[in-house]
Write a structure and sequence with these properties.
This protein is α/β, with parallel strands linked by helices. The protein has helices spanning 20-26, 42-51, 80-96, 115-135, 158-168, 179-185, 189-196, 223-232, 253-256, and strands at 3-7, 31-33, 55-60, 101-103, 139-142, 173-178, 202-207, 238-241. Strand 7 (202-207), helix 8 and strand 8 (238-241) form a beta-alpha-beta unit. The structure holds the ligand O=C(O)[C@@H](O)C(=O)CO and magnesium ion. The site of magnesium ion has 4 residues, from loops.
């Protein structure tokens, strides 16, 4: 049976961030993920998890200047010192939140550069992050993201991510397989699950309906079929529900749209 985590950056947006933990627990979630914890004290977040019987299963390393449009700095030459500081901060939060997965965003290709130009920087930064993460038994995740949502993002395809993992050569870097992005970029989701799950290199899965990124039962993907396939592949990790609710009315927008989840709880 798949296990689902509420993505608190996208779900329950009609309540304050710290109140989203309780809202997720009331709807039956046992785990949460979100983009960034850094605006809050780790102790406060840990208390919300504990009070609501929730597990933290994923968050992102500091992404550079998000408000200025940066989407990670792992592939940016010249930002190595900031990258290392960010990994240190993320690992401190991971320890306080007992979280064993950190998503390290690659970043946008700097103007005038190609993927080849920044490849070495990206690999070197991930090797550093993985070495530090391994000390606390944490895995570093890399996520292929579609360029319609994030134009210029360095990492877009599942095969690109798996080739990088082979090159980096450590079990502490894994792929965050977001099926929403995968469908937009390359499709053929069932075959990709059959191909990549047995490698043991998929460390987390996320879902949303395509193309609007709404509830998983809205749009072109048959998720019930894919959940059974993930079970058949023996996937025991979490599935992050990373979508923008569109079904319900204000204040109940997320809960009203969770009909798709009920058979799987
Ligand atoms: O898919 C996404 O957008 C997220 O998982 C993420 O970490 C970057 O925005
Ligand atoms: Mg995602």
């Amino acid at each position: 049976m798949p296990k689902f985590a509420a993505n608190l950056s996208m779900l329950y947006n009609d309540v304050d961030f710290l109140d989203r933990f309780a809202a997720a627990a009331v709807d039956g979630f046992k785990a949460v993920e979100y983009l960034f914890p850094y605006a809050y004290a780790a102790d406060d977040l840990a208390a919300r998890l504990q009070t609501n019987g929730l597990q933290q299963v994923l968050f992102n390393a500091p992404p550079g200047d998000w408000d200025a449009g940066e989407r990670g700095i792992a592939c940016l030459p010249g930002r190595e010192a900031e990258f290392r500081d960010g990994i240190g901060q993320a690992l401190a939060y991971a320890k306080a939140l007992s979280c064993s997965r950190i998503h390290v965003m690659a970043g946008l290709l700097p103007a005038g550069t190609s993927r080849v130009d920044v490849h070495a920087t990206y690999v070197e930064n991930l090797r550093y992050a993985a070495t530090e993460a391994a000390k606390g038994n944490v895995n570093i995740l890399i996520e292929p993201i579609n360029e319609r949502d994030m134009p210029g993002y360095f990492l877009n395809r599942q095969d690109q991510a798996h080739a990088l993992i082979a090159e980096i050569g450590t079990p502490h870097v894994k792929v965050q397989m977001d099926l929403y992005h995968a469908q937009i970029v390359e499709g053929d989701l069932a075959m990709k699950i059959r191909r990549y799950l047995p490698t043991g290199h998929v460390g987390h899965i996320q879902i949303a309906g395509v193309p609007e990124r709404h509830e998983p039962d809205v749009g072109e993907i048959n998720f019930a079929y894919l959940f059974k396939l993930l079970d058949a592949q023996g996937y025991e990790g979490w599935i992050g529900c990373e979508y923008r609710p569109a079904r319900g009315v204000a204040l109940h927008a997320t809960s009203d749209g969770l009909g798709w989840l009920k058979p799987w709880l």
